[in-house]
C-alpha cells in the first residue's frame, strides 16, 4: 500500500464547492459521494495515511450496507476483510460464545486508506498532513465559508460553498465555541488501543473476544495482517489507578476470565479523549457536522463507523441543495435527519453502556445469553439491523 503522494496547501485552488475536514469513514465517504456527482471537493486530513486509529475494526451490517449503497460493496473484502463469525463474551469469569454472522473485520489503516483512494478515484482532491480550521461566519449571510489550512509553516485560506466537519471525536476544527460547542457526558469512558503481534493470543480469525470488567471493557480481534487489534474503553479512575492502559487492560481480561496477554506493556498504546459526547448545534451557516464530530456514544456495540457512514449518505442531498441555495431550513433538516439516522440508533448503545456499569445486571444478562446463545445472536442481529436513507451512488 503506497502512502498518498503529498501536495501542500499552497499548491491548491483557493475556491471549492465543498471542503471536508477529516478523512475518516465519514469524511472520505462524503467526498466520494460528492465527487461522484461532479462536485469539486477538497478533503483535508491532518494525519499522513495509512494511519492506525483506536477502533475495534469491526464493520457492522449497517456500515457494510452504507458502503454498498455508496457503490463500494466490494471494498472491504478486496482489502482482506474477514467475516466476523463469533463473539466470545467474558464477564466475571464466565466466557460464552455467541454466533454473529453479518459483520466484517478490517484494520483501520487499510479501510481508511481504501476509502480515501475511492474518493480520489471519484475525483476528490485530498490534502494529507494538513490541519484545517473553520473560519468565523461573520454575518451568517456570506456566500462562502473560509477554512484555514496549515501544514508545517505553510498556511493558506480557502473558501467553500459548504464545509463538512468530519474530524472525529476531538474535532479541533472549530475554534468558535459560540458557533458549535461540545458537551461531554459525565463519567464518560476514555478509549485506548494498540496492535499486538499475532502470536501473543490464540485467537482464530473471525472471533471477537470481548472482556467486560468493573472499570471498562476490552475487545480483541485478529486483523488481515495476522496481528491482534485491541480496543478498550476505560473509566478514568481505572486509568489513573496506576500502570495506565496496559495494567487496566490486564485487570479486565483477568476479571472476565481470559488468559493474560504478554506484551501489553511494550505495546504502542494510543489513548482517546472522553468518548460519549454531543456537539450542538449539528449545523451552522454553510456547515454540517458528520460522524463522531456530531456526537458519539461509547463503542460497546461496535457501530461507530456505521453511524459515521450513514450520516455521510444522509447528508449528501442536503449538501447538493445547499450548493444551489443555502438557508436555515437546511440546518433544521440536518438536525432532523441526524436524529432519524444516527441519534435514535445510538440509544440502544447508550442503554447498554449504562447496563455495563452494573456488573450484577450485566452478569445476569450474560448468563441468559450463555444459556440461549442463538437468542442472544438474534438480539444482536436485531440491534444491528441495517436501515439506510434513500441515497444511492
Ligand atoms: C475503543 C473504540 C473501539 C471502537 N470500535 C469500533 C468498532 O469495532 N466498530 C465501529 O464501527 N466503530 C468502532 N469505534 C468507533 C469508530 O472508531 C468511530 O465511530 C469512527 O472512526 C468515526 O468515523 P469519523 O469519520 O467520524 O471519525 P474518525 O475516524 O475519527 O476520522 C476523523 C479524521 O479527522 C482527522 N482530523 C481531526 N481533526 C482534524 C483537523 N482539524 N484537520 C484535518 N483533519 C482532522 C483525524 O486525523 C481523523 O483521521 C470504536 C471507537 C473506539 C474509541
What does this structure look like?
With 393 residues, the protein is an alpha+beta fold. It has 2 domains: 9-54 and 107-184 and 276-354, FAD/NAD(P)-binding domain; 58-105 and 189-274 and 357-387, D-Amino Acid Oxidase, Chain A, domain 2, CATH 3.30.9. Helices cover 34% and strands 28% of the residues. Strands 1, 2, 6, 7, 8, 9, 17 and 18 form an 8-stranded mixed β-sheet that branches. The chain has an 8-stranded mixed β-sheet with strand order 3-5-4-12-13-14-11-15. It is globular and about 60 Å long. The protein starts with 14 loop residues before the first strand and ends in a 10-residue tail after the last helix. The model has no long low-confidence stretch (mean pLDDT 90). Bound molecules: flavin-adenine dinucleotide. Residues 21-27, 44-47, 53-58, 60, 63, 131-132, 166-168, 171-173, 191, 193, 231-233, 272, 275, 291-293, 296, 299, 302-306, 308 line the site of flavin-adenine dinucleotide (FAD). The site of flavin-adenine dinucleotide has 45 residues, from helix 1, strand 7, strand 11, strand 14 and helix 7.
